[in-house]
Design goal:
Elements (H helix, E strand, L loop, with lengths): L6 E7 L2 E6 L24 H52 L27 E4 L10 E6 L8 E5 L4 E4 L27
Antiparallel strand pairs: 1-2, 3-4, 4-5, 5-6
Organism: Thiohalocapsa halophila
Protein name: Prepilin-type N-terminal cleavage/methylation domain-containing protein
Pfam families: ComP_DUS (PF16732), N_methyl (PF07963)
């Protein structure tokens, strides 16, 4: 059998015959490299790796600040719950003794009246009674520390009024209490 001019038949395997042409040009395929040479596809090129690294870097630059804000918000919610728990603790003391500062003898109006010891599990915040505890009033304050620094002071008082000086623009009064006359926007914990 003839395969045409300039073509010979090769039969290594009898089940398939391959035509080998010396004169007929081969058409270029998608996997051919430069000058029509075929290229093996093993691994990634340096350019492909650099493009992937750049894309991951861009995604990380966009996502990481959002992640950090979510962590700060979760920590803030945790300390808000802790302040509510401590305010309820103070109300139980008032219900049992008639004042917020009964002292060690659990009797109001004696010489040993003092603020009760508070145990808190709030990380990244320092919880205290700024200005002390009176017989009929208290203010609990959570001041951010460490990575939460700059997040603003959170407070709650005996009336359940909540205060958050989010941007630290209020200052202090003579007792060291934050924001003696807070702006209306600072009288809640729900924003941010």
């Amino acid at each position: 059998m003839a395969g045409g001019p300039g073509c010979s038949w090769s039969s290594r395997n009898r089940s398939s015959r391959v035509a080998v042409s010396a004169n007929v040009p081969r058409t270029a395929r998608a996997d051919d490299g430069p000058a029509g040479r075929t290229r093996d596809h093993q691994g990634f090129s340096l350019i492909e790796l650099l493009v992937v690294v750049a894309m991951v870097g861009i995604l990380a630059a966009v996502a990481y600040p959002s992640y950090q804000e979510q962590v700060r918000s979760a920590r803030r919610s945790e300390v808000q719950a802790e302040l509510m728990r401590l305010a309820h603790f103070m109300e139980r003391i008032y219900t049992e003794t008639g004042c917020y500062n009964p002292g060690a003898d659990n009797v109001c109006g004696t010489g040993d009246d003092a603020a009760p010891a508070i145990a808190t599990g709030a990380d990244h915040y320092s919880v205290s009674f700024p200005g002390g505890v009176a017989a009929n009033a208290f203010t609990l304050q959570a001041t951010p520390t460490g990575p939460q620094a700059g997040d603003g002071v959170l407070q709650i008082d005996e009336l359940g009024q909540k205060f958050w000086d989010e941007n630290g623009d209020e200052g202090t009064d003579a007792l060291g209490l934050e924001a003696p006359s807070p702006e209306a926007k600072d009288l809640d914990w729900s924003r941010g």
